[in-house]
């Protein structure tokens, strides 16, 4: 077996610890950058109260999506997608300030 002095640095356990540390730091940085994506979506009701056109659009569009789910036309996965699209449409059409 070769002694530690003869082995290159990248073959030593210290190099592996450094690599693990770098990987953990990168994962932590990615989690920090995307922390908003991990949290729940912001509520549109507080924004809608300041803009009556937005509130009416959300009532109509999201109400239609809710009715489609209630009638069994769409499944839960489609419901989430359609609801987020309806909210995005209304907030793009009636921006607040």
Automatic annotation (TrEMBL):
Keywords: Membrane, Transmembrane, Transmembrane helix. The chain crosses the membrane at residues 14-33. The keyword Transmembrane applies. This is Uncharacterized protein. It comes from Breoghania corrubedonensis.
């Amino acid at each position: 077996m070769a002694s530690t002095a003869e082995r290159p640095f990248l073959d030593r356990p210290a190099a592996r610890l450094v690599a693990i540390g770098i990987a953990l730091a990168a994962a932590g940085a990615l989690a920090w950058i995307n922390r908003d994506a991990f949290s729940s979506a912001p509520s549109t009701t507080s924004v809608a109260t300041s803009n009556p056109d937005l509130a009416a659009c959300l009532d109509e569009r999201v109400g239609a999506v809710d009715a489609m789910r209630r009638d069994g036309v769409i499944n839960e996965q489609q419901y989430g997608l359609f609801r987020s699209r309806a909210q995005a449409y209304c907030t793009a059409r009636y921006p607040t300030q």
